[in-house]
Each structure stands twice: as C-alpha cells, then as structure tokens.
Amino acid sequence: MNQFSHITADRLPDLLRRMPKAELHIHIEGSLEPELIFALAQRNGVVLPYASIEDLRAAYAFTDLQSFLDIYYAGASVLLKAQDFFDMAMAYFQRAAADNVVHAELFFDPQTHTDRGVPFDTVIRGLSRACEAAKREHGISASLILCFLRHLSEEAAFTVLDQALPYRDHFIGVGLDSSERGHPPEKFSRVFARCRELGLRVVAHAGEEGPPAYIWSALIELKVQRIDHGVRCLEDAALVARLVQDGMPLTVCPLSNVKLCVVPQMAAHPLPAMLDAGLCVTVNSDDPAYFGGYINQNFLATFAALPQLTAAHAHRLASNSIDASFICASEKQRHLDALNAVFAAA
Ligand code: ADE
Ligand code: ZN
Q1: Which residues of the chain have pLDDT under 50?
Q2: CB 127 within 8 A of CB 28
Q3: Is any atom of ligand 1 closer than 6 Å to the C-beta of 285?
Q4: Which residues belong to the active site?
C-alpha cells in the first residue's frame, strides 16, 4: 500500500500525460522532424540525399547508436541561420508544453554546426532566443547544456569551449555525447576540470552502449552531476550501490533504448529494476523526432509495456525529474507542489 494505491491502472495514461515534469535529456537537434528538415532544406537551398519525407523516415531503422548518429548529423545539415535554430527549438517547446513539461534542459552540439562553417554565435543566438520565448509563450523555463562530441578530440572540445565562453550567460553546463564505444569519459578529463572551475554544471552520457566502467569514469574522472542513460549500471552491483548512495540522477530514455537496440523490446526495459534498486531515475525523450515520440510517449509506452509500474512510480519519476534539474530550490518546490496537487486530485 502507498498513498497512490487507489489510482487504478486504467487512470494511469491520463495521469502520465497531465503530471508536470522536467525534461533533462533532449538533444535539440534530435527534435528536428522530417517535415521541418525538408522545409529548412528548401528555405536554405540544401540538397538532401533523400527524395521525400517518406524516404527519410524510412531510413529511421537503426541497428545501434552509430547507425542513428550518421542520419542525425545529416539531418542537422539544414540548420544554417539563427532563425533555423529558433524554429527548431520552438517546435520542440510547443510539443513539450502539450506534454506538461514545466522545465527543460536542452543539449546542443555546437561542433556539428561550427565544423560546417556555421558560427557559434548563430547557434547560440537562435537557441537562446527560443528559450526566452518558451517562458513567454508557454510558461516553460529552459536552459542550454553544451555537449562536446566525444568522437572528436579533447583539443577540439577546448576550442569549442573557447568559442562559447563569450556567451557564458547563455548556457548552464556541459555534457558529453556522440559515439560512446571507444571514447571513454576520461578522454575529456582536462576539459571537464576546466568547466568545473568555470562553475559550469557537468553531465555526461555513459552506460548507454558503453560498459559500467564508463559510468565509473564519468563519476570519478569527470565528477558529473548527472549520468545520461546509465542503463548498463545494473551489470555492476558496486556501481549501483554507489549511484544510490550519491543520489546520482540517471536520465533514462526508454524509446531511444528500444530504437537503438540497447534493449530488445520495451517489455525488457530495466526501468522497473532501476526504480526497485533505489536509483534516482528520470524518463526523457533523447531524440524524439527519430525515436517515435516525445516525453509523454516515453512514459505511455513504458507504462503500457511494464504493468508492474504504478502511480507511485509515475509520481517518483516526475518528482525525480524536478529534483534532478538545475533550477533553484524555490522553483523546484513550486513544481513539486503542482505535481502533488495533480496526484491529490486523481
Ligand atoms: N547524440 C544524440 N543522441 C545521442 C545519444 N542517444 N547518445 C549519444 N549521443 C547522442
Ligand atoms: Zn542522449
């Protein structure tokens, strides 16, 4: 028995949709829908290697992380102007508002753009303007986390950090993404140390495809404040104990894990085991335009496939997302009060 045990399974989908939540793991370039990719390609005179929207969508049959990243970077090639970045982020915020996201921390990959000759200023101007508009138009607070591409060198990460520092007020932290295998977190120890000295928040993808050792390295070498994905932690009992002891948040992305074959099917997803272990788990969308849905779809698909998940789990996942965010204590309390009100009325 718990305080939510009167909420029956048939009422869960509505509750999952309505509960206020924070999204902590969304690559904004991964929110580019095929329709917008084609519209921006036309607007910017970019020729795509796909004849139609349907052709592009048909290519979304991924076998692993790299097979996805190849298409994801190709999709981002249509982004050239600040207005393109703004339009992409506003399309995301509209969907996030419909899903009752009250706060979002957006990853962006500047090297994907600067390496094509798009100035850092263009990227950050468009995204920053969208974060301000999200508050005005949707009441969503939003901030940006700059991700270093781990398949590139640490020297390249230092270069993008230098480009970013004049815009220090426009992003709250740094992350680490792209091809995980063969690129362990410790490759970026020095640049993360510098970022910590600068007072930036630090997070890293680890334990998505990579082994538990990469999660240890993100904790010990990079001293991260959240682990992105982290689902493979369950292979190492000592690691789980450490993550639980530290209350370390894990930003899990269930539809992504299925689409990238990290798990064979949703019914086999480790989310219930992670919750049972006492881990601070959150549910997020990762790259929603590519993986079949935004944050509410992640909640709905997960709870539909895993009937052991209850209203108490839903509440915990939503409250974890608010707690694990980088907003101030009073804002957290305001969102937790709103969350509790929704559950009290259910
Ligand atoms: N970049 C965008 N999505 C990613 C993911 N799921 N893992 C690593 N890098 C990414
Ligand atoms: Zn990710």
Answers
A1: none
A2: yes
A3: no
A4: 208
